Each structure stands twice: as structure tokens, then as C-alpha cells.
Amino acid sequence: MEPRYDTLFYDGQCPLCAREIATLRKLQKGHLIFADIHQQTALDALPEKELLLRRLHLMTWTGEWVTGLHANVRAWSHTPVGFVFKPLLWPGVFHVARKVYERWADRRYDRKYACTVCSAGEPG
Known about the structure:
The chain is of the alpha+beta class. It has one domain. The chain has helices spanning about 15-25, 50-55, 70-75, 90-115; strands spanning about 5-10, 30-35, 55-60, 65. A four-stranded mixed β-sheet has the order 2-1-3-4, with helices on one face. The radius of gyration is 15 Å and the shape is globular. Mean pLDDT is about 85; it is low at about 115-124.
């Protein structure tokens, strides 16, 4: 059977994201590829860069895009502790967890990229 590799697109300029990716790299079982959005040269085949930075994106081995909380749970499913994240997809829990994730992701993006005051001193 051919190995099945998912690709996780992450914000390599975000310290919190970098810590989570470092942990995922250590724990993953070898079928998760990590792609820093800022190092991608062939963005033509990818969603718009802002969308990639605003929400976590994962491309499955079949070419399907998974985003947000689903992408996070799928990425962690490549580790021995993935079972801890699965309850986030349960119907009652998912509704709340998705709202919390999206609010956090929007605030993170706005502070890092959309806030003119925050990004005034950062290089383009």
C-alpha cells in the first residue's frame, strides 16, 4: 500500500504556530508534511495567501482541503495523542469549539497582519 501524506500549511512567522508545529513534528508518525506559507513559491495552486494565514489549512493525501478546527484535528490524528482532539468534532462540542477557534484565529491574524499599528514596524 502506498503511503498517504497529508500536507499542513502553517504560518511560520507566528511564534505560537511554530511551537505547535515543532510539537507535531516530534510526535507525528511520518505521514504529515509541513509547509510554511511564507516559503511557498507556487501559491497559484493554493488558496489565497490571506485565507491560508487566517485559518489552518491541510490538504489530504486525496487532494481535499480541510480547514480550521477540522484541519487541526486531522493534523493531530497523525500523532499518538490525536484521540485527545477527536471530541472537538462531536456535534455539541464542535459548535462551541469552532467558534472559539475562529475567534482566536481572526484575532491572531488581525494582530499580526491586518492591524496597521501592530505591523507598522514589521517588514512586508
